[in-house]
Amino acid sequence: MSAVYETPRPETSAPPRILIAYYTYSGSTGKLAEELQRLTGGTLTRLYPSQPYPSRFPELLEQVRREIHSHHYPRLLPVSESPARYDIVFVGTPNWCGSIAPPLAAWLRQHGGLAGKTVLPLYSHCGGEPGNIAGAVRSLCPKAQVAPVFAARPDEDDLAAKLDAWLTACGGLSAISV
Predict the structure, then answer these.
(1) What CATH number is associated with residue 120?
(2) How far apart are CA 21 and CA 47, in angstroms?
(3) Does residue 2 belong to any structural domain of this protein?
(4) How far are the Cα atoms of 34, 103, 176 from residue 19, in angstroms, in the given order?
(5) Which of 59, 102, 108, 165 has the most C-beta neighbours closer than 10 Å?
(6) Into how many domains does the chain fold?
(7) How far apart are CA 32 and CA 50, in angstroms?
(8) What gap in Å lies between CA 49 and CA 102, rounded to an integer?
(9) 101-159 pLDDT, tens digit each
(10) pLDDT tens, residue by residue, 22-61
(11) Which pTM was predicted?
(12) Is residue 8 part of a domain?
């Protein structure tokens, strides 16, 4: 388990630059990312695979299982934001088969595992097994400081309060709120 992130900042230092990079299939992870943006003032960047996933669940599940087990990293459409100029990077994903969605895995790999960054993973789920989302992010980001994972269902009550509590548990990051 990662340590709690206590990053004391002198009163004169600039606030951290925050990027919220996420992949959403049905919109649930997007809802988390948008609420996180509202709380932190971070910059949102949505990830899109160059080839969309199937809309029918059986085909989607088959493709996702195949990609996760073979460590396939799909090609992504270009995004305007690079994590290079950010201090803190939130990474959002749906829980797919107990792991992160391949488009997020591809983005993390494309950006060198966010070496030297503080990475805060979050995921949406529908009540299934949590799997090892944290392990998947840590394996792709071995040179980043990875915080404990936040998980939420799409119909979660008090999402803002739960996100704020998570940010506080990650070392007072709720203090970066706008």
Answers:
(1) 3.40.50.360
(2) 7
(3) no
(4) 12, 17, 13
(5) 108
(6) 1
(7) 23
(8) 9
(9) 999 999 999 999 899 999 999 999 876 667 789 899 999 999 999 999 999 987 788 98
(10) 999 999 999 999 999 999 999 999 999 999 999 999 999 9
(11) 0.87
(12) no
The two tokens of residue 12 are 């004169």
Q: Which domain holds residue 141?
A: 19-170
Residue length of the chain? 178
Say which residue the tokens 């934001």 belong to.
81
DSSP string, the chain: -PPP------TTSPPPPEEEEE--SSSHHHHHHHHHHHHH-PEEEE--BSSPPPSSHHHHHHHHHHHHHHT----B---S--GGG-SEEEEEEE-BTTB--HHHHHHHHHTGGGTTSEEEEEEE-SSS--TTHHHHHHHH-TTSEEPPPEEE-TT-TTHHHHHHHHHHHTTSGGGG--
Residue 152 forms part of a structural domain: yes
Written as one letter, the residue type at 152 is: A
